[in-house]
Amino acid sequence: LLPVISVKLGMTLPSCTCPAPEKRVCSWPSASYTDSSDDETSPRDKQQKNSKGNGDFCIKNIKQADFGRREIEIAEQEMPALMALRKRAQGEKPLAGAKVVGCTHITAQTAVLMETLSALGAQCRWAACNIYSTQNEVAAALAEGGFSVFAWKGESEDDFWWCIDRCVNVEGWQPNMILDDGGDLTHWIYKKYPSMFKKIKGIVEESVTGVHRLYQLSKAGKLCVPAMNVNDSVTKQKFDNLYCCRESILDGYKRTTDVMFGGKQVVVCGYGEVGKGCCAALKAMGSIVYVTEIDPICALQACMDGFRLVKLNEVIRQVDIVITCTGNKNVVVREHLDRMKNGCIVCNMGHSNTEIDVASLRTPELTWERVRSQVDHVIWPDGKRIVLLAEGRLLNLSCSTVPTFVLSITATTQALALIELYNAPEGRYKQDVYLLPKKMDEYVASLHLPTFDAHLTELTDEQAKYLGLNKNGPFKPNYYRYADVPFNPCLLHHDFIL
């Protein structure tokens, strides 16, 4: 047909040099989603040293340090508050003498936090809280810079605990502060080295899972040091959880599956801050979004935002994408997985890897087929397959990246929480779980406003008196919900420090 049309339109077609159809071979370029190093040797079997001869680290490849340093420098441009803290600490070291052991995602953003803590006077040893989220080049840059880092992308479960132990169990070094993301580091110290808590001044925890563990310890009377719940601070809930997930959910899906969202039917399990961010992004892309929820307040918010509230069983046969955002366990179980349609994509955006019952899929009748890094086809005997991302672990940090500016807010909150607990006079904090003081939340927010050339209005003396406020804050009472932060009854019995 094309030659006929070309003659009628006066077009000249180039001569065809393609081979005959039966001999034609199509070769599509394949994207690389794997690590840049081809060395399959386990880092635990290597002897590595940085340029200064220091070997107190275990990473994938120290030769990637220059690349990692450039990644960190890019992140610094989007983390103004941490850079401001460094500048203000030039004459003062509020963390002098602090020995911080950390277990978080090891990314360029975390590197900026670690180097800020060092600038504030702290010594740091670090492991990864997720076996897939480590940026190997960033770990190399940190090791080259003198940090004791034990992490690489694609650790085994045994590697994961080995790295944590190497951070904690070192001769001549005793941590006195813990920065945790998920509670695994805290759990390991309680399990293996409980005597260390005699010298530890406090724990800073930033995840739903880790905070839940801390409240359980507190309720049982087993929490032996003060802990700061960063996860429920306003600057974490309203920014990292909401705005970060609103952007990174799309990034994670695009990188792993190249899926188009327009017209897709999606069910989002959970309408907390993470669920709200995911739903907003998917709706904007033209997806048909369903929500499951247990909390009637969050459920009503979902309805008022225009989403259909359902039970998972009601839609599981028809949806194209399933996303968990609850922080709970066994949200998607084998019964749901068996009933999913062919090609359904399943992932987790909640912190814990317990939301999708992946273990139930590791049975003889099902076939696992690795498509690319962090993407698996799970195939049923009848040929049906689902697409599982990151083996049920956190999608955005396992399969993509997250917006640096939002992480700046969270990282600054973590730094201030460490400073507060480390410098608090004896007796201010008991062996319990606390929220970050409201004044600090407001301070974190104020450090980020200059990026937007934003100008705060100041209260007059008369206005401050009328409202009963200090002109310099805090501007809201601790019970203020910031529009849509759901009420958390487990916080009722905890002290709130102004």
3D architecture notes:
By secondary structure, this protein is an alpha/beta fold. It is built from 17 helices and 15 strands. Strands 9-8-7-10-11-14-13-12 form an eight-stranded mixed sheet, with helices on one face. A seven-stranded parallel sheet has the order 3-2-1-4-5-6-15, sandwiched between helices. β4, α7 and β5 form a beta-alpha-beta unit. α2 crosses α5, α3 packs parallel to α4 and α9 packs antiparallel against α15. The protein is globular and about 65 Å long. The N and C termini lie far apart (77 Å). The N terminus and C terminus are likely disordered. This is Adenosylhomocysteinase like 2. One of its GO terms (biological process) is S-adenosylmethionine cycle. Belongs to the adenosylhomocysteinase family. Keywords: NAD, One-carbon metabolism. It comes from Oryzias sinensis (Chinese medaka).
Task: Please specify the SSE layout and strand pairing.
Blueprint: H1 2-9, H2 65-77, H3 80-88, E1 99-104, H4 108-119, E2 123-128, H5 136-144, E3 148-150, H6 157-168, E4 177-180, H7 184-192, E5 202-205, H8 208-219, E6 227-229, H9 234-257, E7 265-269, H10 273-284, E8 288-292, H11 296-304, E9 308-309, H12 312-315, E10 321-324, H13 334-339, E11 345-348, E12 367-372, E13 375-379, E14 385-389, H14 395-399, H15 404-423, E15 433-435, H16 438-448, H17 461-467
Parallel strand pairs: 1-2, 1-4, 2-3, 4-5, 5-6, 6-15, 7-8, 7-10, 8-9, 10-11, 11-14
Antiparallel strand pairs: 12-13, 13-14
